[in-house]
Amino acid sequence: MSDGARSVNEGADGGSSSRREAPARGERVADWADERLGLYALAKANLRKVFPDHWSFMLGEVCLYSFLVLLLTGVYLTLFFEPSSAEVVYDGSYVPLNGVTMTRAYESTLDISFDVRGGLLIRQIHHWAALVFVTGMLVHMMRVFFTGAFRKPREVNWLFGWLLLFLGILTGLTGYSLPDDLLSGTGVRFADGAILSIPIVGTYLSFFLFGGEFPGHDIIARFFPIHVLLLPGIMLGLVVAHLILVFFHKHTQYPGPGRDQKSVVGMPFMPVYMAKAGGFFFLVFGVLAVMGGIASVNPVWAFGPYRPDLVTTGAQPDWYLGFSEGLIRVMPGWEINLWGHTLVPGVLIPFSLFPLILLAIGVYPFVEAWITGDRREHHILDRPRNAPVRTGLGVAWLSLYVVLLIGGGNDIVATHLHLSINAITWFVRIAVFVAPVVAYVVTKRICLGLQLRDRDKVLHGRETGTIKRLPHGEYVEVHEPLDRAALFTLTQHEQRPPYEIGPLVDHNGVRRQVRVSQRVRARLARAMFGADSHVPKPTPQEHRELTGGHGH
């Protein structure tokens, strides 16, 4: 090749090499971000992460999307709401209240409802989203509880979810109180009475919270930053931490073929799960918008402004606070006078039980881990029937909640069903102790019956409804054997022996020292995982004997 040709080729190669060394602007931006943040490796590791597909996993998404709707609508409402207790005389669009003295907070709520374009719709979407958010969290946590998804390594994530539920209730209480209508004011008065029942410090706490004698002039201004900044900020951080741990840990999945503690069967996060999640977000938003548009909630103009000397008829808190009010309504009105001081256990005891009941939910995963002594990671969910004691405890807690919810609305139940309010109150007082026990016993028996049915399916197959007559005249129903996938699903769960103390005397005749905690742990282990809490799984030998072609 001549030198001229060689120089031309070298120039061409050099030009193409220079073009390759000058990437496009978007590629340069991506390279710049990747070099500083490591986005490529992060995306490669997580965007193809597999998520199992089951309808119950969408309960957590309902909570997330409702929370996002709460943030969006809350920002809009904040632009028009004035958290002031200054008194004004109303002269606005809602004629029935013209000339009525009210706080600026209540007046701005009326302005949002009647004068701000779309204000009433956003208010109602915000309120419905709050109700759905707390409902979704409770149902989601019950799904996690009944399936054992709180076990190692997800105990911390359970605490995050529990804190979100607790903070969601507090956020709902503060937001419910901001409009300063007669209904919300009655709820704040209820909370003040509970605070005053605390011995020694109750009066001081009430004065500090309200800025003086109830109702004071500072409570709305103090609730406002708590409701719009403090609590939502903490909850947003917990939501982010919760989602990070969901990504960090492998997603739990229901038992089935190909599913074990090391592999996950499902769809990749990108693009399948992201597309479904995006569509589901707009579905949740649309349903909340429809509810806000057609279903009236918290019509503050119907109650009027708050006055300390009035109580609205049928004053009820939102459902998630109903069981706290039910605790107080069904408690006898006990009072004790000691050395010139009045103690009110009729309010203090139920007021103390409210956080204790919630605390029991938060610490349960650690209690069960202590009882079982199981330190392994669990990524396969339990079928609720295979953990009858845990399932019974969950149903007992729900039954207690329902009973107390009835007690919290005893006046509404009495007026709508034309019953005696005293009869309802005594029914709730008795049911508080009886209903959880009955619910536990019935649920445990149902779970054991379902286990027995599963055992029968594994050994004898599925009933077909086809009746066959044998040569000697006997009639039998033909059973269809289960496939291997169904057999695996029905028999994959473990039935480990419960924790035992062991012999109290060793081989040398020396008596062992057994701590009280060990005795308690052994008794709880026998109650939760002993022979009375499960039906033994069929062994492979039993299955071979019954399906080996001998007999019918």
H/E series: HHHEHEEHHHHHHEHHHEEHHHHEEHHH
Main sheet characteristics? 2 strands, antiparallel
The low-confidence runs, each spanning 5 or more residues with pLDDT under 50, are 1-12
Structural class: mainly alpha
> What is the terminal separation in angstroms?
90 Å
Give the spatial strand order of the biggest sheet.
1-4
* Shape summary: globular
User: What portion of the residues fall into strands of 2 or more residues?
Assistant: 5-15%
Mean pLDDT: 86
Q: Helical content, roughly?
A: 55-70%
Q: What Rg, in angstroms, do the CA atoms define?
A: 31 Å
Q: How many beta-strand elements?
A: 8
Structure characterization notes:
- The protein has helices at 3-20, 25-37, 39-46, 58-78, 104-114, 119-147, 155-177, 182-196, 202-210, 219-248, 269-294, 300-303, 322-329, 345-372, 388-408, 410-417, 421-460, 484-491, 516-529, 540-547, and strands spanning 50-51, 87-89, 101-103, 267-268, 336-338, 341-343, 462-469, 475-480.
- It is mainly α and 552 residues long.
- It has a two-stranded antiparallel ribbon with strand order 1-4. It has a two-stranded antiparallel sheet with strand order 2-3. It has a two-stranded antiparallel sheet with strand order 5-6.
- A hairpin with a 5-residue loop joins strand 7 (462-469) and strand 8 (475-480).
- Helix 4 (58-78) packs antiparallel against helix 6 (119-147) and helix 6 (119-147) crosses helix 11.
- The protein starts with a helix and ends in a 5-residue tail after the last helix.
